[in-house]
Amino acid sequence: MAGNRIERVQEEIRRELSDILQQRAHDPRLAWVSVIRVEVAGDFAHAKVYVSSLGDEKAQQATFQALQKAGPFLRTELGRRLHLRRTPELHFQEDHGIEASVRISQMLDDLVPPSETSEEGES
């Protein structure tokens, strides 16, 4: 039963943070941030927020720094939207899942010889 509540709170935090980042955060570095998933501690004191962003490594570092700086604002906004006894402290983590997917897709594309892909398109 407690596991279901944690899962619901995690999903609610993910959804609300995504909305706050799109609607209320005015820092342009946060424009392309996606909240991938949230893991909340059992006591609701801390939450790991896994995020992904577009851009090269330098842009991603700037985005991550902007998230760290916006952390107190995001927590306050989250507290206003959620009706929890305690709003968890947010700890941002970079999620490299999308980057890994792109690399795997590129490797798979490299395995198929160009002549085969052009023949398939002509059929």
Automatic annotation (TrEMBL):
UniProt-recorded Gene Ontology molecular function terms: ribosomal small subunit binding
InterPro entries: KH_dom-like_a/b, RbfA, RbfA_dom_sf, Ribosome-bd_factorA_CS
Keyword tags: Cytoplasm, Ribosome biogenesis
GO biological process: maturation of SSU-rRNA
Function description: One of several proteins that assist in the late maturation steps of the functional core of the 30S ribosomal subunit. Associates with free 30S ribosomal subunits (but not with 30S subunits that are part of 70S ribosomes or polysomes). Required for efficient processing of 16S rRNA. May interact with the 5'-terminal helix region of 16S rRNA.
Subunit structure and binding partners: Monomer. Binds 30S ribosomal subunits, but not 50S ribosomal subunits or 70S ribosomes.
PANTHER family, sorted: RIBOSOME-BINDING FACTOR A, CHLOROPLASTIC-RELATED
Protein name: Ribosome-binding factor A
Organism: Eiseniibacteriota bacterium
